[in-house]
Please model this.
Amino acid sequence: MNWFRLFRRKRPNSGLSSVSPKLGLRQWQSIGQFLGLSIACCALIVSCGAPKTSTPVGSSSPATGASSDRITVGSIEKPRTLDPADGYEVAISDIITNLGDRLYTYVGDTDKIEPQLATAMPKVSADGLTYTIPIRQGVTFHDGEPFNAKAMAFSLERFSKNGGKPSALLSDVMESVEATGDYELTIKLKSPFAPFPSLLAFSGMSAVSPKAYEIGEGKFKPNEFVGTGPYKLVSFNPNLVKLDVFDKYWGEKPANQGIDFQSLSSSANLYNSFATGALDIAYRDLDSSQVVSLKNDAQSKGFQVVNKPSTRVDYLVLNVKQKPLDQVEVRQAIAAMIDRPLIIERVYKNLAEPSYSIVPNSFETNVPAFKEPYGDGNVEKAKELLTKAGFSKEKPFVFEIWYSSSNSEREQMVTLLKEYAAQRLDGIMQVKPQPVESTTLFANVAKGIYPSYLVAWFPDFGDADNYVSPLFACNKGSAATGCEEGASQSQGFFYYNEKINQLIQAERKEQNTEARKKIFAEIQTLLAQDVPYVPFLQKVDYAFAQKPIKNVELNPVLGLSFWEVDKQA
Model:
């Protein structure tokens, strides 16, 4: 079971009213990826060798897909539901992105958006509250119903009102939605939100047939999907989801005849199913050693290797209200002692890149604000700052780092930090690993129990706001009390900075791209000064495909574009 995103806390209705404090929103993916795999992954990572042969597990043999004109895709995650108003896991997103269309989507392998069911970018009112969107004509739902502005309004209203796991993404910002013409949609916001078009590209905001669905709290259809996408659903169970090409699709038809999403029982099964030719594509869920092994075998065995820097950011949360982390010098010392290249080499087999900001490296708004003031493995600066904070070899800083006990790579990372501190910091800092079961970890984050914990953040949409507002905004608090209510509190930072709050509100209102970049630069610089977190790295996403497979492309937000994949004889 994939635990990321499953525990979403609704925001308090105060303060920064448009900012939702999402508890573990996408952090849960990095936990869920390891819940069922920890034993196999640990053994593989330690040995750095190829996994032992294991029989693939599923509702049908994956070998059938690999010999047909259909595409068979293997992963570990089991989809919980196919209802776009309730689906909030990556395994679900991969599937419903192929079954449904949104108003906007992403261009190729970039984070730039373009119209999909819309025919142009929105017209935005001067106050930033009203979006008028022209709607595509000639589109048909899988059940034969015609698509129009009224159907799109129904779909967005259902997403907002049915109370699904991702519902607050829209309900927090949208005041109303209505069809103001057969093919014109008008959306009014509660407050200005500049990245709103990017939010409308979120996979869950797919158009669904009003004939097949209802609006109402909890009225979901987990085993169905009736949308407008290039594929239609044939069958669904957690082990195997089968999609066929939708012959009445309005756009370019898929390059293949269908997709079989197969869920396997372990990363070892996934690795061996692909290595033996039983799967066309292995995507996500392979650990670092398995990725290295497949890369090494690619030339001799004809495997295709596709990679793309991920928009996932791994970072360390620092609870600024716990002593001695309430001293900025202590937090800055932690930032200085982190050696990202060493972590990436030793733990991630060089399958990641250093991160010096919470905003991904690929975003135009990225500023590597932690790089110049702290660097990597700057032990002299760390010792100087800790001495200034009152620590010494006789009175060391004992630094507890909490992490999910089921995540073997995080375990290795903390162990490495412990050894690094012991060898390089002359006893002035002692790192104390604190493994804890993942559900317990995230249940206690907002209570302020942990001085620090390791986590990863995955975006809902491709805008820097989604890396800032859900983490650092605070609805209620002060410099003296810290954050008492809001995103910063729910994520375990307890960080309050009124200037940051003002800047977040400013970037959410600002429509000018260059002006927003300057605001985000200031936000990242301030966060690097205050250090409520320390960015570590961004993993590289990998997909492996068999030799007959063509046009495998990874989008940094949506993932793999399966409709473009061509299987040649």
